[in-house]
Amino acid sequence: MDEILEILEKDARITPEEIAKMLKEPAQKIKETIKKYEKEGVILKYKTVLNKQLFKDEDTSVRALIEVNITPQKDVGFDKIAERIYSFAEVTSCYLISGTYDLLVVIEGKNIHAVSNFVAEKLSCLENVRGTVTHFLLKKYKEDGVVLKHKEENKRIAISY
Q1: What is the mean pLDDT of residues 4-8?
Q2: Domains of the chain (ranges plus CATH)?
Q3: pTM recorded for the entire structure
């Protein structure tokens, strides 16, 4: 992979000037390369990884991983049904996988009931879906290569003599 892409993948906030210093290249060349990657669709989005467990928010959502068994369609294979599934607003990611299941779908819902309603009313009833298995995410330890630190409360009772 290109060095510029590797640097941006680790830290999207780094400036072209900083990258230029690191690579000993002119800043203008770095800016042009980044623009080219954005235009070609190599760089799709710049993302911030949040540790949502550290802020108390009433609207915290529930994430689930759903393994989906599907029947591939003639001439289009898995692509058409995958496109139908990833078009739902609740779906944050969709992958074709090897193994027992065909697709791994990551969804986000307001609560467990919203996720179960999505599976029952939208996903399972699709024509080519043969079965699903849903796994709820209980706690995140690492996301996108970043270890999520948790506030540790000292639960030990202080003893003094």
Answers
A1: 92
A2: 3-40 (no CATH), 53-139 (3.30.70.920)
A3: 0.75
